[in-house]
Design brief:
Layout: H1 6-12, E1 15-18, E2 28-29, E3 39-45, H2 47-55, E4 60-66, H3 70-76, E5 80-84, H4 87-102, E6 107-112, H5 117-130, E7 135-137, H6 152-159, E8 165-169, E9 174-176, E10 179-181, H7 184-192, E11 196-199, H8 213-221, E12 231-235, H9 239-242, E13 253-257, E14 263-265, E15 269-272, E16 275-279, H10 288-303, H11 308-314, E17 326-330, E18 333-337, H12 342-355, E19 360-365, H13 372-386, E20 391-396, H14 410-422, E21 428-430, H15 433-443, E22 449-453, H16 461-470
Parallel strand pairs: 2-3, 3-4, 4-5, 6-8, 6-11, 7-8, 11-12, 12-13, 18-22, 19-20, 19-22, 20-21
Antiparallel strand pairs: 1-5, 9-10, 14-15, 15-16, 17-18
């Protein structure tokens, strides 16, 4: 492997190097955890951050936004700093370099799409570990490491060298505020260079980063550009994913999951290549979107030639990530789900309604600081999903639990409420999550079901409910 120097790194990330060229001895890291010789990667850094990095004796800093006197401070300290216009180029290079150095012989899987990435990745990881492989995944319950817009994944791979399989969830689109990272899935998938690519579905989620279903299609399909691996796993039940089958290179195998696919769900259970593998009652979850994720994971295991007997034994023992249709109480039944986009909201409400014995109490957190559009289409999906079912809807802004990056703005709350009113949906709004949960707990009976949905504004709900029980 070519020796990594600050000048070489600057060239690879289309950056300008301020300071001396020197050999980089460490790994790519975040400022908080950086050690001697490391490369610190940050979206922005000020002079205080530069001083902290210098005290840690790092090799260099790479940033997109040097604030205040950051550059001059680095020069005064004789610390190399690289300024790039696209920080994602650095993180893509960091992953590529780290895999080459610390996991060069590893099998690599990428899972991308709008919905189901986390559960699919986590279940694949579970199957591999139980099958005896040393597997790494960047999927966690809070989905903090799946964006690949910071060096955490590169850092974790470097610090856990010796992994035989890397299961990497790649966000289909990425950006922050008005900064859109075009072709994110393409850039990160190309850097990982996967043997297996799993595509879940195409739907609207990150409004502002993509503004149409066609934009979402383009971003997800980008993961196929330059694909050199051995197999692509496609969701046969998603029309947009099926449009991508002609983009798969001719030398790569295609494995379909879904209706009529190589891996499909029928009334009796899951079939692989036409033969029953798992009876329906053996599945860890019965909801439709979980079944889709299970099919995708089994299809990926098929692509990896995992013994079917191992899959049959392992899948029933799978425990879901936190906030993925998680049952946190039984009487009344309380289900917690990270439903934060239209498809997720619709699928989760439908699944909860199917198992509810009484009234369905839906406690929904409005998405804060995500804009008018996503809240408008989320509210519409919520309204449409509640038609013709016995429901009580409680909406919250979760003011007391969200940080500054997730505060519900006035215009976001207004459009959400306006849509509900226009669709004739009865609701109660509470500014605080604590109030909303107390309302649901206080009014529901033992035969009822409480469904908690939403992103960051609903994340602390299970902890708050535990506090209720303690009191």
């Amino acid at each position: 492997m070519k020796e990594l120097t600050t000048s070489y790194l600057a060239n690879k990330v289309n950056g300008d190097l301020y300071g001396k060229d020197k050999v980089i001895k460490g790994i790519f890291n975040i400022l908080k955890d950086a050690k001697k010789g490391d490369v610190v990667v940050r979206h922005w850094i000020d002079s205080s951050g530069v001083e902290i990095a210098n005290n840690k004796d790092v090799s260099c800093i790479v940033t997109q936004n040097p604030l205040g006197n950051a550059i001059s401070t680095a020069q005064d300290l004789d610390l190399a700093i690289i300024i790039t216009e696209k920080i994602e180029l650095t993180n893509a290079f960091a992953i590529q370099w780290t895999i080459s150095k610390f996991a060069p012989e590893s099998l690599r899987l990428v899972v991308t799409g709008t919905n189901g990435k986390s559960t699919t990745s986590h279940m694949i990881h579970h199957i591999l570990n139980k099958a005896g492989y040393k597997s790494y995944t960047n999927t966690d319950s809070l989905s903090e490491f799946n964006t690949l817009i910071d060096p955490m994944v590169a850092k974790q791979i470097a610090e856990s060298s010796g992994k035989e399989v890397l299961v990497l969830e790649v966000s289909e689109v990425q950006g922050w505020k008005d900064r859109i990272m075009k072709d994110h899935a393409f850039l990160m998938t190309q850097a990982i260079n996967p043997d297996i690519l799993v595509l879940t579905n195409v739907a609207m989620d990150h409004i502002g980063l993509v503004n149409s279903i066609e934009d979402a299609f383009h971003e997800i399909a980008g993961s196929l550009n330059g694909f050199k691996g051995k197999a692509v796993v496609l969701n046969q039940d998603d029309d947009f994913i099926m449009k991508m089958k002609d983009m798969v290179p001719p030398n790569a195998e295609i494995i379909f999951y879904g209706t009529g696919g190589d891996v499909e769900m029928k009334a009796e259970g899951i079939f692989v290549d036409g033969k029953l593998l798992l009876k329906k009652e053996e599945l860890p979850f019965q909801s439709p979107h979980f079944i889709q994720n299970t099919l995708a994971a089994i299809a990926a295991a098929k692509a990896l030639n995992i013994d079917k007997n191992i899959i049959k034994k392992v899948v029933p023992s799978y425990s879901a990530l936190k906030r993925r249709f998680t049952v946190i109480n039984k009487n009344p039944l309380i289900i917690d789900d990270f439903a934060h986009n239209p498809d997720g909201i619709t699928a989760t409400i439908n699944s909860a309604n199917l198992i509810s014995k009484g009234k369905l109490y839906v406690v929904c957190a409005i998405r804060g600081s995500r804009g008018r559009e996503i809240n408008e289409i989320n509210a519409l999906a919520l309204a449409k999903s509640l038609l013709n079912i016995n429901y009580v809807l409680i909406v919250t802004s979760s003011q007391e639990v969200v940080d500054n990056a997730n505060v519900v703005q006035h215009h976001e709350k207004k459009i959400f409420i306006d849509v509900l009113q226009k669709e004739g949906i009865q609701y109660t709004h509470y500014p605080l999550l604590n109030q909303a949960l107390k309302e649901a707990i206080g009014k529901s009976g033992v035969e009822d079901t409480i469904l908690l949905i939403g992103a960051q504004g609903m994340d602390p709900a299970s902890d708050i409910l535990e506090g209720f029980e303690e009191k």
